[in-house]
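Hey L., structure's done. Input below.
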Amino acid sequence: MEQDSEIIPAHDPDGNVDFLPQKHMLKSMEEPELDIVSAFGGVALGERFAVYVPNKDRDGNPVDQKPWVQEALRLFSQIGGGATAMPPVTGAWLNPETNELIIEEPIVIYSYVDPDALVARLPQLINFVQRLGKETNQGAIGLEYGGTFFTVEQFS
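Output:
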């Protein structure tokens, strides 16, 4: 006949009850640690840095993306060794001044960059984003770095 196993609580030095005294068993239930880069024999290239180049201005008027995409590809390649321009994606934002929904197709340009290389070129990147926002009459320019999306809304 099978015997029921009884859980006998353990007490820690403070007298608290611990119903799982064999915590070492939990380690075997944890996910194994995986170094995916090493598993493929790869080299980590850094953090993703991206800019969204709009095809419309804040009023919904068309913007010529081509010169901005070319400039971003060159600048990002100088920083990260290469860059990618994704095909246009469909996005939308609400113009707070007119309450109009602006549907646009930005092109996302990104590169994986070493933080030190990014810092070294930060003045050029800031200048690029400032010109992009001002010269194309934007309400905001979207950027990503290290998993954080943010916008720049003031253009000098």
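The mean pLDDT is 87. The helical segments are 24-27, 36-39, 66-80, 115-120, 122-135.

-- N.
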